[in-house]
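Explain this fold:

***
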Amino acid sequence: MPPKVGSRHSFTLGVRDARGILHLTEREPYGFRAHSDNRVHMVVQGDTLWGLAGRFFAPLPRACGFWWAIADFQPDPIVDPTLELEVGRRIFVPSLRVLTDVVLGEVGRRTRG
């Protein structure tokens, strides 16, 4: 069973919810949603979730730490962030606005409520 405290990504085994959907932890990920400012990135050799987060979320302090937002944002979420990204795969990246105002905003509301 995953830990109940600390980072929701401190392990990579995943947890299946009642519907059988695999998640990194017991908290359901934000998931992919169409926003007018979404971006699509085609994976090239050497790309990692950490590197993509650092590139796309650069204005934020410790931008690489938001790799989980990219993992969650895929139509088929990436459950194991330690696996190599497949070259040529389309990765959907939320804009900085979506990350800060929507994804992180929902996380904050869920933990306060």
Summary: Residues 1-12 have pLDDT under 50 and may be disordered. The helical segments are 49-56, 67-72, 96-112. Strands lie at 15-16, 22-23, 39-42, 90-93.
